[in-house]
Amino acid sequence: MAGRVVVAPDKFRGSLTSPEVAAHVAAGLRSAGSGQVLVVRLPVADGGDGTVDAVVASGFTRVETEVTGPVGERVLAAYAVRDEPDGRVAVIELAEASGLRRLPEGAAPAPLTATSRGAGELVAHAVRHGATRIVLGLGGSACTDGGAGMVQALGVRLLDAAGNDLPPGGAALRDLHAIDVSGRLRGFEVVVASDVDNPLLGPYGAATVYGPQKGATPGDVTVLEAGLARLAAVVARTRALAGAAGHGGVVRAAGVADRPGAGAAGGVGFGALAFLEARIRPGIGYLLDLVDFDRHVEGARLVITGEGSIDEQTLRGKAPVGVAAAAARHGVPVVAVCGRRSVGDEELRAVGIEAAYALTDVEPDVRRCMAEAGPLLERLAGRIAAAFFTP
Questions:
Q1: pTM
Q2: Is residue 288 in a domain?
């Protein structure tokens, strides 16, 4: 046998899911006459869009249920589960329930009122069906509500001065007066899988950096920042009062709003840290652990990773770089496939990627690359086979 290849790509956004990318690369290797090469398909994700698809492809079971979408409509969303020796783990992708892609067709974003409630409903559904560990992937959210909707779905009450529950969205947080966690669903641990290191507030915070991507005007950003600041202040006050009374606090540690990752997904990272005592783990690293990447890559001859665009953002630790780092620990070389790339060979080699093969290398028309990504990937795989497996 000529060797084993692990095909571990992320999605090509707008064209192919990560399992589809892996399937086309594998087909291209076979068509190129690499019949003596054992191809292991191991789609990956970093916690954002496509995380559920990736882990289902690695052996998790897909579960679907109806939840609240970002602007209140009902949507059918999925998560993934697997039974492990220490309990059932559920992988929940925030974007499945509360992402921009879940906005009704033709609807404008609703930055002030969009909610993360559906993500909380997915968590509740998983826990009520036996999950003891929740892996919460953050990314692609439509909301900037600090995780308020998520924790409300789990039984936390966010109250105004009159004792009424707050309505959905980040703008409503400006009226937050008190927090009641007595009815919160318990009995599970939460791991947040995210590579975003933004704090909750300030010039690098959730509202300022990500609000405009969700349709927020400069005035909206000011409103959302005020709401998130109010949430952080009331959480801190509630924790202080609980501590003085000798009871468990709302949050696990002081300074949660300033912690890296608190600003992820419109502040849902903060909500998970403050109310669910979550741990934040680097998204791609944690997801590689879940799909047992180390076992598959040990002894492999080559790893093929990739994503839609290999650019400066990739170099800052996105999925292909995480795959390359993991493969390097086993001494296995890595190449990447992509739709297009804007970084040079030396920059790629510096992060452990020997070469990158782009669809635009074989088809300069970007629109055709998007429309015909699958067949073009198979052609790229043929080039990789010729470079690495031809005697």
A1: 0.89
A2: no
In angstroms, the CA 95 to CA 302 distance is: 32
Q: What is the pLDDT of residues 6-65, one digit of tens each?
A: 999 999 988 999 999 999 999 999 888 766 789 999 999 988 889 999 999 999 999 999
| Per-residue three-class SS string for the chain | CCEEEEECCCCECCCECHHHHHHHHHHHHHHCCCCCEEEEECCCCCCCCCHHHHHHHCCCEEEEEEEECCCCCEEEEEEEEEEECCEEEEEEEHHHHHEHHHCCCCCCCCCCCCCCHHHHHHHHHHHHCCEEEEEEECCCECCCCCCHHHHHHCCCEEECCCCCECCCCCHHHHHCCEEECCCCCCCCEEEEECCCCCCCCCCCCHHHHHHHHHCCCHHHHHHHHHHHHHHHHHHHHHHHHHHHCCCCCCCCCCCHHHCCCCCHHHHHHHHHHHHHCCEEECHHHHHHHHCCHHHHHCCCCEEEEEEEEECHHHHCCCHHHHHHHHHHCCCCCEEEEEEEECCCHHHHHHCCCCEEEEHHHHCCCHHHHHHCHHHHHHHHHHHHHHHHHCC
- Considering its fold, how many domains does the chain have in total? 2
Residue 294 resides in a domain: no
Q: What pLDDT does residue 313 have? A: 84
Tell me the pLDDT band of 252, cut-offs 50, 70 and 90.
Answer: very low
Among 27-36, 260-269, 284-293, 381-390, whose mean pLDDT is lowest? 27-36
CA-to-CA distance for 283 and 266, rounded, in angstroms?
17
Among 250, 283, 316, the domain-final residue is: 283
* pLDDT, mean over the chain: 92
User: Which pLDDT score is estimated for 14?
Assistant: 86
The CATH number for 156's domain is: 3.90.1510.10
